[in-house]
Amino acid sequence: MPQKATFYHAGCPVCVSAEQGLAHALDPAQYDVEVVHLGDVPGRIAEAEAAGVASVPALVIAGRRDTPLLKAMR
């Protein structure tokens, strides 16, 4: 069963580029990716903050921003 991944962004060119390059590059067999444009749905900002998002773009996997996958990418 795929892990939930949420990509938060604000619609700026950097965010859109990151969405195209990262969020859509994840294997759909392993990750169920939801893209959230916080400018369109500001009610989800608190959700993003609770997951550890301090700035966008940000990718949250399995409810946590700081995951082993992201640590390996640093």
TrEMBL record:
<protein>
    <recommendedName>
        <fullName>Thioredoxin family protein</fullName>
    </recommendedName>
</protein>
<dbReference type="InterPro" id="IPR036249">
    <property type="entry name" value="Thioredoxin-like_sf"/>
</dbReference>
